[in-house]
Amino acid sequence: MLQTWYIESDIVGGVAAVLTGTPWVLREPNTGVFYHGRSKGWLRKAIARLAAKTIVANSPGGTRYWSSHPDARMISNAVPVDDIDAVASASLGAPPVIVYAGRPEGIKNVDVLIAATSQMDDVQVIICGGGPRCADLQRLAGDRVRFTGFARDVWSIIKGADLFASLSDFEGSPNTVPEAFAARTPAVLSDIDAHRALADEQSAFFAPLRDVAATAAVIRRALADRSEAALRAGNARRRVESMTVEMMADAYERVYREAIPLRRHDEHEQH
After folding, report:
1. Are 123 and 226 part of one and the same domain?
2. 8, 10, 81, 156: least buried by Cβ within 10 Å?
3. What CATH number should be reported for the domain holding residue 67?
4. Please, which pLDDT band fits residue 261 given cuts at 50, 70 and 90?
5. Looking at residue 195, what is its pLDDT?
6. Is residue 25 located within the same domain as residue 92?
7. Mean pLDDT, the chain, as a whole number?
8. What is the domain range of residue 232?
9. Are 33 and 6 in contact (CB under 8 A)?
10. Counted domains in the chain
C-alpha cells in the first residue's frame, strides 16, 4: 500500500500506483481554493480520480473538493493537548499581547492584524514564524510588533498571550488554531469555512475577512470583556479534547486495513 502526503509526491506516487497496481491513499491537507490556477493541482486530481483508493482530507473543505471521488473521507488533525498542558506559559509583559503563529504568507493576512492594531497603543503583537514577507511586514509594523522568526517555544508564547489571531483568506485545517484552543487562549478568527468548522460563536470571536476596522473592533471587544473571552476559550478547549493522536491513528489504521485486503483479494482472483 502507498500513502502520499504532498502535491509533488501525490503526482509521482499516483503514477507509481497506476503502473504497479498498488493501493493508494492520498491525503488532502487543503481545499479547492488552494489549487485554483495550478497545473499541478489539475494533474494531481486527474491521477487521483483514476487510481486513488481513498482520499483522506483533514477538513470539510477538503472532502468537498473530492466530492466526486467514491471514497473521500475526513480524519481530523490531532491536537497534542497533554503536551501543550505540560508547557509553561511565557511571561510576555504587562500590555495585552496578541500572537499570530505560522508562515506570514499573503493569504494569512498578517498585514490586516498589524493594521487593525496600529491605533492600539496598549497592545503588543507577536508574530511567530519566518518567511520572505517578514521584512516587508516589519517595515509596515515598525518597532511596535515583535517578530520571533521560527519559535521553538511557540506553545509557551501562545499560552502566555491574551489573544491568538488567525485572519487567513482560506485554510485546509489549520494546526495553530486548535493548538491555541488547547492552550485556552481566546481566539480571534477570520470568518471563513475552515475556522467555522473548528469553532462557533460560543468558542471564538469572528471578524469579517480582510476588514481592518471590523477586526480592530472585534479585538477590542475580546480584550475588554475578559470573562466572555475566557468562557469562549474554555468552550474551545472542550472542542479539541477529543482530537487525540490515538483517534487519528485509529482512523488511519482503519483506512489502511480497508485498502490492503483489497489488494490481496485482487491477487487471489488473478491466480
Report:
1. yes
2. 8
3. 3.40.50.2000
4. low
5. 97
6. no
7. 93
8. 81-240
9. no
10. 2
Sequence-distant (6+) residues with CB within 8 A of 177 are 164, 166, 171, 187, 189, 195, 198, 199
pLDDT of residue 270: 47
| Closest CA relative to residue 17, chosen from 263, 251, 270 | 263
End-to-end Cα separation, the chain, in angstroms: 20
Helix pair 212-224, 226-240: axis angle to 10 deg: 100
What percent of the chain is predicted at pLDDT more than 90?
84
User: Chain centroid to CA 44: how far?
Assistant: 22
Higher pLDDT, 179 or 120: 179
Q: How far apart are CA 203 and CA 3, in angstroms?
A: 34
CA-nearest of 134, 116, 133, 102 to 125 is 116
Write out the DSSP string of 184-239. T--EEEES-HHHHTT--TTT-EEE-TT-HHHHHHHHHHHHH-HHHHHHHHHHHHHH
Report d(CA 86, CA 79) in Å as an integer: 13
- Whether residues 9 and 90 share a domain: the answer is no
AA identity, residue 268: H
Cβ atoms of 172 and 59 closer than 8 Å:
yes
Label each residue of 127-161 as H, E or C: EEECCCCHHHHHHHHHHHEEEEECCCCHHHHHHHC
Q: Which three cell numbers stand for residue 2?
A: 502507498
Please name which of 112, 105, 25, 39 lies closest in space to residue 73, comparing C-alpha atoms: 25
Beta bridge partners of 164: 99, 187
Report pLDDT digits (tens) over 25-42. Answer: 999 999 999 998 889 999
